[in-house]
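#struct-queue
[09:14] JT: dropping the first one here, sequence first, then the structure tokens:
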Amino acid sequence: MVEELIIMLKKVLFYDFLILGIMFIITYSLFHNWYIYILLGIMVAAVNFVLNSVFTNYIVSSKSHGHKVYMPISSLIRIVFVCVIAMLLYNYNEVSIIPFLIGYSLHFLAIIIYSLTIRN
């Protein structure tokens, strides 16, 4: 399962970086003041995805039932991580939360592209 996870993470992150590059070109040329927030949103979503995948793989593959309690804890940590970044951006500039959420949502496009490319 670890090999499959690594392959999936590499492919999804590849699509994330591809989207990141395309969005950098588009937003830098059209919305010069939004590009950093969109890129930050994509990067935060990618980090969150990797952390979720690693924690979930560890919890599911562990033989002990005591590790099941880590799932809600890891979810809470990831939610707090994203919320803190979003609150910091909102406090810095209220409008910056919109491109951040757009960037965060673009990560789902990478997941959709990956799911369309797998054959099994």
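[09:21] JT: and here's the second one, same format:
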Amino acid sequence: MTTVADFIQVKKIDADNHLDLGMRYSSYAVWSGFYLPDFPVDGICTDKNLQNDIRTLTHIRAGMEKDVLGMFSLAVMESIADNISELKAIIDIDLIKAVDTPERFVSLVTKTIEKYQDNLKITPVLGINSDEKQFNFFHAAESLLGSGFFEGVDIFGKRLIKKPRDLVEFAAGVKAHGLKVYLHAGEITNTEDFLVAAEAFKPDFIIKGHSKLTKKCQELLAKEKITVIYNPEPSLSLDELAAEIKELLDSGIKARLGSGCLLLYNKSLSEFAASLCNTGLLSLEESLKLIEV
């Protein structure tokens, strides 16, 4: 039996951390100044509608630069406490509304990176909600990505399942500029949609959703050299995740772990790795391989 401490003591890469939702609820309530309605007592939010409501409320609360900086700091401090050495930080483009211009948005993120540079490396990835209808994110995203500041983009939302031409072309443009494409498969529930999305977007990373990675999926992942990222989405079975990860590792397919949204999942990267290891389906060595630098 391994403990969380076994993983905390190891320097780690968090492969998927949404900074807008990267803190515990106790810290969030102090920052926001309010309690979230119907928030689960155990801190684990499985209701998709509630998750979306929390994200919306959070972005409304983060209406000024100082609010966003405070929110980011809470997430980064959680990572420092977990001994994270590199943080793949998903920065939601929706937060640009707090500062108005792409230049000021980059400056805002830079302040966070510089503030904590002695503690950990923050690698910013631009998060894009494909369902966002309040503004056209393409223009803003192109300006931000053209700065060379972001490692790439993280695309999520229901629209990506439908393989809309504008999103596919946008992803292709991102890769053409040498940037990374992260694809959130959280909304994908079947193998066929997974294969269609993976073939259309050709991502560098796929954040695992509910669809089972069949032999066909694994062949595509291996062929396209796609890394699969797992986060502690509470509706997913730990035993099933561990068994699938073991299968990928045995097949030579790269897999990594991310904390995802700590506010919603209430599980740090170290806690997640320990939980997977303690299923007995992954060895300590294999579990460490998923998070080590």
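[09:30] RK: nice, looked through the second one.
[09:31] RK: The chain is about 45% helix and 15% strand.
[09:31] JT: good to know. The beta strands are 12-18, 84-92, 121-129, 152-156, 180-184, 205-207, 227-230, 255-257.
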